Fold:
Amino acid sequence: MKCSHALAATVAACALLAGCTAQHNSSPGSASSPSPVGSEITPSNTASAHPSHTAVTDLKDWPTKPVTVDEMPHGKLLSTTFGKGYTGSEFINRLAKQWHITLGPRKKNDFNKKDDVPPVWLAAGTGHSSTKATTDVTAVWELSGDLASLTCSVSRKVPDYKDFLRDCAKLNYPGAQPTVATRWLKRTMPSLDKAHTQAKKPVGSPLYRSGQAASYLYEYDNGAEGTVDMLRIFGAAS
Structure:
């Protein structure tokens, strides 16, 4: 199945929040993998994983202002699910239906069979606006079925792209505060825009924390899609 260039970038970025290793990480900010962080490891894997020369990213060290991709963490991202028993399926299916996104079936992904990181379930889909620009959703679950991350990516050419991002930010995981999350998003976008315009390279925002989760916004240029905003929400271990 063919997918849009933007969706391929989103899936690649989500892979980094899905337990894949650095082998799958392209240059940060590239079209193939616009993620600023390295690979993810979960607490259940840390004891058995082979020693790595890549440092683990402590979320407490995350930048507190918008920064370019080269200033963002590039180590392994220690994360968890959003909570035991939380699948997020109802929310994700409703989001996809509302934005006319065709969400594919869950597929088991083992990004590197040679490492000690277990495979995950991944589902992704793309919607097209009246301008032919895309909205993308990618969700990752641990094999238990618990949701590990949700990533929403949208071209600025989509007329109501801000509404799409706002709807994504309302993910109803345990401990979520949707109203506060949407306020954070509204407050963050102007400063991220300014940083992106000045730097002329991919930029990422400070983290938003609520419950057992963290979120950040990422802005980059993606060819014909123009400027793309990627909102990533993931289970946070600390």
About this structure: DSSP finds five helices and 13 strands in the chain. Helices lie at 5-15, 43-46, 89-98, 161-169, 178-199.
